[in-house]
Structures are given as C-alpha cells and as structure tokens.
Amino acid sequence: MERTFIAIKPDGVQRGLVGEIIGRFEKKGFTLVGLKALSVSRELAEQHYGVHKDKPFFAGLVDFITSGPVVAMVWEGDGVIASARKLIGATNPLNAEPGTIRGDFGANIGRNIIHGSDAPETAQTEIALWFTDAELVSWQPTIMPWIHE
Ligand code: DAT
Ligand code: MG
C-alpha cells in the first residue's frame, strides 16, 4: 500500500491548523500510520530540502522549518502521494485553488503551511529520513470496506 510523508510546518502548527489538516486527510479516507511533533534540526532540514540547496530561498526555508514545532506524519492509501499533493494545493498559496489546504489557509509562498512528498521515490526517502520503522504502525481501519471496494 502506498505511503507518503506529510509535514505541517511551523506556521501551520502556530496557527492551530493541525486538527483541521489531519481531519482533511482522515475524511478523505487515508490511514494515519505515523505522527509526531518535533523541533527540526538544521541537519534534518538541510537533508529534507537538499534538492533545493542551490536555490536563493534555501537558507530562508531552512531557517523557517527549524523556527518552531513541526508535525510530521505518514499517511497511507491507494494513490495517496498524488492525492495528498492535490489536497495540499499549489506551492504558492496565492495560486492554490480554494478547497485545498494552501488555497484555504495560505497567503505567501514562504508560509505555505504544509509539505507533501511529490513522487514515490521522494516519499520513500522522506519517510525513512523522518521516521524509524518502529515509529510507524501498520493497521487496517475496520471502516475500510466503506471507503474502498
Ligand atoms: P512544494 O512544497 O510544493 O513541493 P517545492 O518543493 O518546489 O514546493 O519547494 C519547497 C518549498 O520551498 C516550498 O514549499 C516553499 C519554498 N519555496 C519554493 N519556491 C519558492 C520561491 N520561489 N520563493 C520562496 N520560497 C519558495
Ligand atoms: Mg517539494
């Protein structure tokens, strides 16, 4: 079953959006298999955003993600990686459709509330970077026959 890495960034946590965001993933029908709140070290931030290390916004991005609490999650479900990106919306919240998390709650690209893995390979790498195997729980929601045929 497909899994993706989702992180609520310090702005989302500070603004009290944790419950709202978790609720959206739950109501969609995805399964929560990992969840923790943490302060992100610079080392973890630089590894997580390594693909952007040559971009002009990299330093600000690392400063921001290390500036407050982050809620890290792993969600499971058929097609969850691409679907989560749709629930999240465009990178720039000003371009994100209403109904998406960034479209409903964001107003600035540097404060876009949430991260979601963009492909199967990055999902796998990011889950391994943020969680140990022991921190992930494999389970089958009993409601699954009403979510998935
Ligand atoms: P996404 O988070 O939608 O996958 P990304 O991987 O291209 O977007 O960029 C990672 C983060 O970096 C993004 O969530 C916000 C920040 N960012 C991206 N482009 C930016 C820009 N042009 N100016 C400032 N911050 C930017
Ligand atoms: Mg990205």
Descriptive account of the structure:
The chain is globular and about 45 Å long. It has a four-stranded antiparallel β-sheet. The protein has helices at residues 10-14, 18-28, 42-48, 58-65, 80-88, 101-105, 120-130, and strands spanning 3-8, 31-39, 69-76, 114-116. It has seven helices and four strands; from the N terminus they run βααβααβααβα. With 149 residues, it is α+β, with helices and mostly antiparallel strands. Helix content is 38%, strand content 17%. 2'-deoxyadenosine-5'-diphosphate (DAT) binds next to loops.
Keywords:
single chain; 149 residues; alpha+beta; 4-stranded antiparallel beta sheet; 7 helices; 4 strands; 38% helix; 17% strand; binds 2'-deoxyadenosine-5'-diphosphate; binds magnesium ion
Based on CA atoms alone, the radius of gyration comes out at 15 Å
What's the arrangement of strands in the largest beta sheet?
Answer: 2-3-1-4
**Please, what is the oligomeric state?**
single chain
H-E order: EHHEHHEHHEH
Span between N and C termini? Answer: 15 Å
Shape descriptor reads globular
Number of discrete helical segments: 7
Average pLDDT score: 98
Poorly predicted regions: none
In percent, how much strand structure appears in the residues? Answer: 15-25%
Helix content: 25-40%
Give the total of beta strands: 4
Major sheet: 4 strands, antiparallel
Question: What ligands are attached or bound here?
Answer: 2'-deoxyadenosine-5'-diphosphate, magnesium ion
Structural class: alpha+beta
